[in-house]
Specification:
Elements lengths: L4 H4 L4 H27 L9 H21 L7 E3 L12 H18 L8 H9 L10 E9 L1 H6 L4 E8 L2 E13 L15 E8 L4 E5 L6 E3 L12 E4 L7 H11 L6 E3 L3 H7 L5 E4 L13 H9 L2 E5 L19 E5 L3 H15 L1
Helix pairs in contact: 2-3, 2-4, 3-4, 3-5, 7-10, 8-9
Length: 354
């Protein structure tokens, strides 16, 4: 059988297959935990335990699958969680819960005939302690991006990127609650609409989406709107994550008519990449420095779908600095037609605020 041309042309074929498998498996564990939260009453309390369990469990599964699928590769991961809290007195019950969830997810999937001990689980979590940086290869993982959305039963994402010599070369976003069909054609949706999207992109090969459960991949591209008055905005659902007054000032300058689409997590990047909206703005509060795992996977999916992702000065995001982006001024994602106008409105609004 001859190799497909795009497979031959993609130097990261094995990594992409492993990353997709890892994210899909982690998403399955997260879905199970989220259903449990929604069935109990926990989302009204300050109890973060279920989220913790899903965060850690997701990180363990991603780590496990990458090591199993890419055994010959040197392994380095920059991830959000470490096992410090799980090693404390009183954390045994949570650790047991995570271990049994991970083992049930592996058993149900059937790909690997194995069972992890609590020590294996702690070791897998600590596999994410790498600092990343400009040389070598590093996986970048946010095991659950959008914690508050996860608790509410809303959008969240399992976000995995690959950094190679300081550049993001691959990204996979598992969005269990995002409809597979574009959300802007969704008039309330119907029960037949498939929910659960897996977005992925490799540098130079474009971006695609398929069902989280697996389906024929579809090429995606950002919208081609060139007039800001026709554009719609994505912003964070949580007011604490972004300066909404500044966002609305920018929207006003651009003449944007549509109300903002508020969504948790990097699901926004996926939705933007397939044209569900035109502009995503993230303007963090003063002093907040963005982490690499909040943007690595999403940004390459948008750029490979023909979009642009810039900081407030109009520069590309730099993922080679370690665990943090060297940025506290904001991030803009949109198409190439709108970027100049959005960037100018952004900079004008920032100047006025100061």
């Amino acid at each position: 059988m001859s190799q497909l041309p795009e497979v031959a042309g993609n130097p990261y074929t094995a990594e992409l297959a492993a990353a997709k498998k890892a994210v899909a498996l982690a998403a399955r564990l997260c879905q199970r935990v989220q259903q449990g939260i929604l069935q109990s009453d926990v989302q009204s309390k300050a109890d973060r335990t279920p989220v913790t369990v899903a965060d850690y469990g997701s990180q363990v599964l991603v780590s496990l699958v990458l090591k199993k699928e890419l055994p010959s590769h040197s392994y380095s991961m920059v991830a959000e969680e470490d096992s410090k809290d799980l090693r404390k007195d009183g954390a045994q019950e949570v650790l047991e819960h995570i271990t049994s969830l991970v083992n049930e997810t592996i058993a149900n999937d059937g790909s690997y005939n194995m069972s992890l001990s609590k020590e294996d689980v702690l070791a897998a979590i600590d596999g994410g302690k790498s600092e990343g940086g400009p040389s070598g290869r590093h996986w970048i993982l946010d095991p659950i991006d959008g914690t508050k959305g996860f608790i509410r039963g809303d959008q969240y994402a399992v976000a995995l990127g690959l950094l190679d010599e300081g550049k993001v070369v691959l990204g996979v976003l598992g969005c269990p609650n995002l409809p597979l069909k574009s959300t802007n054609t969704h008039n309330g949706g119907s029960s037949r609409d498939q929910v659960g999207s897996l977005f992925f992109a490799t540098i130079g090969c474009g971006a695609e989406v398929e069902a989280l459960e697996g389906s024929e991949p579809q090429k995606i591209s950002v919208c081609s709107i060139n007039n800001p008055t026709d554009a719609s905005f994505f912003e964070s659902y949580e007011a604490s994550h972004s300066k909404r007054d500044l966002t609305s000032s920018i929207a006003e300058k651009l003449g944007v008519q549509a109300p903002p689409v508020r969504m948790d997590s990097q699901a926004k990047y996926g939705a933007l990449a397939r044209g569900d909206g035109a502009i995503f703005l993230r303007i963090p509060h003063k002093g907040y420095i963005e982490t690499v795992w909040d943007h690595a996977a999403g940004s390459i999916i948008v750029t490979e779908a023909g979009g642009m992702v810039k900081d407030a000065s109009g520069n590309d995001l730099d993922f080679s600095k370690g665990r943090y982006l060297d940025r506290d001024r904001g991030i803009i994602a949109t198409n190439k037609y709108l970027m100049p106008a959005v960037l100018k409105a952004f900079q004008d609004a920032m100047e006025e605020e100061q």
